[in-house]
Amino acid sequence: MDDKSLERGSFAAPAPLGSEFSHEVLAVVLRVRRDRLEALLWQRAIPPFQSEWSLPCGPLGASERLGTAVGRHLAAKVDITDIAHLEQLETRSDPGRDPRGRVLATAYLALVASDAEPGIPADTAWHPVTALPPVAFDHASIIGSATARLRAKLSYTNIGFALAPASFTIAQLRDIYATALGHPVSATNLQRILTRRGVIAPTERAAPSTAAGGRPATLYRFAARNLVITNPFAAFRPAAAGIRS
Amino acid sequence: MDDKSLERGSFAAPAPLGSEFSHEVLAVVLRVRRDRLEALLWQRAIPPFQSEWSLPCGPLGASERLGTAVGRHLAAKVDITDIAHLEQLETRSDPGRDPRGRVLATAYLALVASDAEPGIPADTAWHPVTALPPVAFDHASIIGSATARLRAKLSYTNIGFALAPASFTIAQLRDIYATALGHPVSATNLQRILTRRGVIAPTERAAPSTAAGGRPATLYRFAARNLVITNPFAAFRPAAAGIRS
DNA sequence: CCAAAAGTGTTGGGAATACACCCATGC
DNA sequence: GCATGGGTGTATTCCCAACACTTTTGG
Question: What is the C-alpha to C-alpha distance for residues B39 and A160, in angstroms, rounded to an integer?
Fold first, then answer.
């Protein structure tokens, strides 16, 4: 077996600086679909935690960066071009986090646009983060960290670009924000705030109105599709050095 | 030597899951002293980067958590009881970040109260973050991440407790905030904002007035000495579920 | 003409900055 | 009593939530 032996086996032999460690990367892949914030999980076929669900993960390559490793392992689960945003969350180091032996794990937050339809393997499925199945290892708390990070950044960055389609109506965007944040959001105020901050801008096109009638909605787009802090913390700062105008 | 050989030496031999990696922890120890935000740096005696300055660092122990390792290595540099706050920043994985061979590094932010007088070793010194000496490895950008994290958290948490003495006047606290933030801060507004948020509270005592006269200043203290988010992001949230009262 | 959905105008409240004024001490 | 520094009252500004109202479509 490969349990405790490897932890001590590679100790003191090659490295003058200290021990060496297995290192894996984890991805919390989130998307909004049908008024639910969902995470991509993989059902384990073998012990430990057999038949429980775990985050997509894989080992770090010998001469690979962590972010590259996440992308590489995700490519096996989803179409990598559907990953609109990727950022490092935290590194877990509890020696007991994997019963098979010591593994450090660096977790990433990955966001998928709500209109993407990535084909996923048979042993993976999307689960709403509010009703998770039994989750293996320490992955449940990592999912919690990821959703907290997403919710915070929705308030002061343009991170919504990674959840929304390329173009969208304000009503669609309102639903995405409301689902991700977990509370009602006003379409009126969402439009004004994001427009004032320069996060979204109207396009020339409009969405067709439904059979029930109603004014056709203007299609909007995000002004940038990379992460920008749009609402910097300004507490205690003199107003003269203001943000805009 | 121990350069490229160890990177490949421990590859494919013991671990069925992947390579194993040397892993070190780094600490960005910050304090405010004499109107300067200072970082604790150690001058390297040997190559690479001989005579340049690096962050306090050390290897992760075989069955040790990352946070524990940081505390252990810091204890060799400063009195660990002076570390008022410690939090994980990020993990760096660039294969070329250390010319001797591959080392993953998890960086931590450590804060020291401004009135602490930790004895430090002869080869370490405090340097203002605005005028750093030549810095080894990727440590300069890590110091940048640390100061950015500190500045952001000063605006929406009580993290100032870790920079301030146990009791202090508003004028002293104003100087600490102004130094850490890098811009002028109004004592009047600082007192009202932090009091309203419940972050600081007045004590019974007062500081003696100076020889130049003046009203004696009330001594304040932080209500909590562990990190609390006092100003949660509330954008797009209905006001009914308000924060207080 | 009416229902339905989108978008704009307007109001009000809360929070933060700026500034004027009052308080308490040493000399 | 006067200079000095600490603390409080108050006005102004800005941001955002709430809601009323107008616009534009389908039937």
Answer: 35
